[in-house]
């Protein structure tokens, strides 16, 4: 029994580590956005947000490629190919002074990183199902969130002592260690009976099967809405805390405190989801998400920012509800897709990310002198989410 517990612990941490390469590539760069923008002759804060949004764009498209391929060639080979693309993309980002080329490199980074991100979810789905799968995904997400806690502080340290290029180099070194661990310790999880002979038609047949399942579609759309609203925060956090509140030196610590909130709430979700069920927790969290954002909009409709302490309280409450939505949305979408876990995970990630990027960029353009548009975005996406959520039947618990 102890051996099994250790094995599951290592599995969870390894899956989180695969995801954490993505988080490090996004969050460690946040304190360096003004420096990178100045180096690339782009001093516009809204333009600099593209350095965050473009990697998500790549993540969306990449999942659509690697997920279906993994159903034929296995999960592990796709992880290796994706990381190879990430290496090339990182070299592009640090070897040019052209803003557009760096954006292309960030898209390519996202495409490469989409593989370990998608494969980690597919591997979990290969190994678990039902509320147990939701529990594992929640623990994976909680461990994964430890990276955003330290990533901005690490990014700021590297920026001040070694320059912004070192952030990309450290990402490469960290990713290489994870790949070595993955190669040594993680067996292939795709069973031969589920392995499909590769042909181009598998993209078509897998997609048809996916779009025939209403609940998978709805929970995927819900994932896109919540990801989009959270992505707005990621893209504008530096601007809000460093520019609007003039708290540049404290930015990594504020960012970390909010990440810890999400981590703790995600851990709570993993602890109670087996008892209360995914659907019930999502129902409560979504109502809270809408209510909290509506309260902020009512209180600060004038556009004047509240004190930093009050803003953090609102963000803590908001992100607590977000933590209960992220993993459970994904688990609810993946639950009926065990027979097409690879392409199912890919389509789930692709659709939700492609939805999230324009949502985040559009809302982000309004966040210049006030935080109000952030919470208005939360409210609107939350209300749309409620309509979608109640459009599908409550699933029967496994």
Explain this structure.
This protein is an all-alpha fold. The protein has a single domain, classed as MFS general substrate transporter like domains (Growth Hormone, Chain: A, Up-down Bundle). Helix content is 81%, strand content 0%. The protein contains 15 helices and no strands. The chain has helices at residues 2-27, 33-39, 45-48, 50-73, 75-94, 99-127, 130-162, 165-185, 201-211, 214-244, 251-276, 278-299, 308-334, 341-364, 372-389. α5 runs antiparallel to α8 and α10 packs antiparallel against α15. The longest helix is centred in the middle third of the chain and has 33 residues, at 130-162. It starts with a helix and ends in a 9-residue tail after the last helix. The model is unreliable at 1-6 (pLDDT under 50).
Question: Any idea what the CATH architecture is?
Answer: Up-down Bundle
Tell me about the largest β-sheet: none
For the record, the CATH class is: Mainly Alpha
State the distance separating the first and last CA atoms. Answer: 24 Å
Number of strands: 0
Order of helices and strands: HHHHHHHHHHHHHHH
Q: What shape does the CA trace take? A: globular
Q: What is the helix content?
A: over 70%
Low-confidence stretches: 1-6
Name of the CATH superfamily:
MFS general substrate transporter like domains
Task: Kindly report the average pLDDT value.
Answer: 87
Number of domains: 1
Number of helices: 15
Helix- and strand-based class? mainly alpha
Instruction: Describe the oligomeric state of these chains in a short phrase.
Output: single chain
User: The CATH topology, please?
Assistant: Growth Hormone, Chain: A
Residues in β-strands, percent: under 5%
